[in-house]
């Protein structure tokens, strides 16, 4: 037995725990996966850290959706490689793991492109991390990007109360993963695989555990969350509307949200939930991508602009105060000025509370990337600037319209200034008030008194101020 093994056996508890830093990029699915990985590694004895210098293990949970996002990972890895060399020079080591969608899409390529990477692990293999890390510690450089046969969620350990508590009052629960839609611009069907839903009982159990530990807002997440088709308790297939209805009955849970939805799966039953379930927050993120029927068809979105507008109308009918948000892509191959104008017209017609907009980025392996009518960068930039100006104007208008209204705010943290606390309105707006820190973790009524560019100022209603 060598000296190191001897020390490990004789005094295991006296050594400082190994530290892990999980850095997440991209969508909420990655944020959720990052917490699950941290929970799993917590069980393996790793403590979480926010600092690279402290970390024995750094996991980059990556995004592949646009070229910029993927390239950012390689520049981040370059920096980590330098840090790793500096640590090695001091006789310490840092294992570097690439997880998430870049791992899935590029696999072994990542190991080749950056020598400092020890391990590449795809989104369906996280539960195998402990074993993979053991191999890495022995010096192996492994890429595991299999779509595992065992259910990742069932194999991952549930977080402890203490782990949940460190993460605040709002939590994500993945209910569905993957995508069968194959929009012609998108890598997700290739990186996250086919649509798969978790059973209702599993989701209820996870939600109850979170609520018992103090969480009061749950956001159900999935690449196509409204295509949710999990097994119900009675053995039949459920849907998102029914799942929301069940979860809303959990005592102590005060807010429910879901994201991201596809227009074709926006069933009437789900729309009706917005009128029937008071805990379901009046906020719907419904990506439209384009307002031009011709481009929507080329994108393989399977609906036209009118269908989108009609869904918006139906949601507003049952929940008139609903806030809508969307994703847009400008400069899809073949997009003409008239097509782009149709996108601007759709946005003007709806009036979004907040939105994300992107320049089309050709992704390897997707049909749109092979088209020979790609749009010039300069045109994409001009269109993006015009669309973003409009969407920003709409966001400000939406915020301004809430001034004078009474809303419930879920307080999450101390505010920027002494004596202030900050939280979220039902419409996902950041709200600041003068108030006691005891309200953090609770909902209270406020009156909105001012709209700043990124947050709202409010006053607690008198009973809450006394509380
Ligand atoms: N280029 C630009 N934006 C993209 N998105 C997905 N793929 C691409 C791409 N190739 C955007 C879509 C989607 C969001 C998550 O990212 O708007 O809704
Ligand atoms: Fe990508 Fe379309 Fe699937 Fe959304 S619905 S993940 S944009 S392929």
What is the count of DSSP helices, taking H or I runs of 4+ residues?
Answer: 17
Roughly what is the average pLDDT, rounded to an integer? Answer: 92
Q: Which word captures the global form?
A: globular
- The number of distinct β-strands equals 19
The rounded distance between the terminal residues' Cα atoms is 63 Å
Class from helix and strand fractions: alpha/beta
- Largest beta-sheet details: 6 strands, parallel
Bound molecules: 5'-deoxyadenosine, iron/sulfur cluster
Q: What is this structure's SSE topology?
A:
Blueprint: H1 3-10, E1 19-24, H2 28-43, E2 47-48, E3 57-62, H3 67-89, E4 95-99, H4 100-106, H5 108-113, E5 119-121, H6 129-137, E6 142-144, H7 152-155, H8 161-165, E7 170-174, E8 176-177, H9 188-191, E9 196-197, H10 200-212, E10 217-221, H11 240-248, E11 255-259, H12 268-276, E12 283-285, H13 293-298, H14 305-318, E13 323-330, H15 337-350, E14 354-359, H16 377-402, E15 406-414, E16 420-424, E17 430-434, E18 443-451, E19 456-460, H17 462-466
Parallel strand pairs: 1-2, 1-3, 3-4, 4-5, 5-6, 7-10, 10-11, 12-13, 13-14, 17-19
Antiparallel strand pairs: 8-9, 15-16, 15-18, 16-17, 18-19
